[in-house]
UniProtKB/TrEMBL annotation:
Coiled coil: none annotated. Residues 54-130 form the Cytochrome b5 heme-binding domain. Belongs to the cytochrome b5 family. This is Cytochrome b5 heme-binding domain-containing protein. The lineage of its organism: Eukaryota, Viridiplantae, Streptophyta, Embryophyta, Tracheophyta. One of its GO terms (cellular component) is membrane. It comes from the Eukaryota. One of its GO terms (molecular function) is metal ion binding. SUPFAM superfamilies: Cytochrome b5-like heme/steroid binding domain. Gene3D superfamilies: Cytochrome b5-like heme/steroid binding domain. InterPro entries: Cyt_B5-like_heme/steroid-bd (IPR001199), Cyt_B5-like_heme/steroid_sf (IPR036400), Cyt_B5_heme-BS (IPR018506), Cytochrome_b5 (IPR050668).
Amino acid sequence: MLKRKIYPELEGKILINSKMIGNNALGEVTNGVDGAIELVSLLQVAATDMASDPKIHSFEEVSKHNQTKDCWLIISGKVYDVTPFMDDHPGGDEVLLAGTGKDATNDFEDVGHSDSARDMMEKYYIGEIDTSTVPLKRTFVMPQQAPYNPDKTPEFLIKILQFLVPLLILGLAFAVRYFTKKD
Ligand code: HEM
């Protein structure tokens, strides 16, 4: 018969992607067959809990964490608290800070992060983003074309001058000729 044992010390610190962390807990549990079975069920419960009940954060809440000492990022619908990673990020803390207050997925993907960088993210995962609270991306709107200007005054004036100026020159030429002939 199975002897059920409870491991309160395991609570909240056992699972990250099916890998157990915490040596004490692992040692204690694997010492006995009963314990191992219990551990499996504990892990299953924890895994189910984690999978079915991630914390949902609103965009507004996440956006408030926008400092070096308190920095949350939204990447691919997930929320990461990268505060402990600020000093160690190979790309520097400034790019991480610049990724706050928005969906940083494109920033993250544009860099072409390695698989090990992606594995690392699990460490900082703190929940999902409530997508309905994320403001729509600002899309480029073509500026309205300047309305057609029906006022053709300058063009009209130029056309008249183009016609009048040669006439004036011609008139002047005739006048000069006329007066010089008289002399
Ligand atoms: C949880 C989030 C993040 C993690 C765990 C992470 C991790 C890493 C790691 C491990 C590298 C080294 C290269 C590699 O292995 O790919 C790296 C490089 C880099 N990261 Fe991140 N990163 C994160 C978010 C971001 C974000 C949001 C940006 C914004 C643009 C960014 C920008 C960069 C840049 C520019 C480099 C290149 C550094 C270089 O090669 O000169 N990272 N990141």
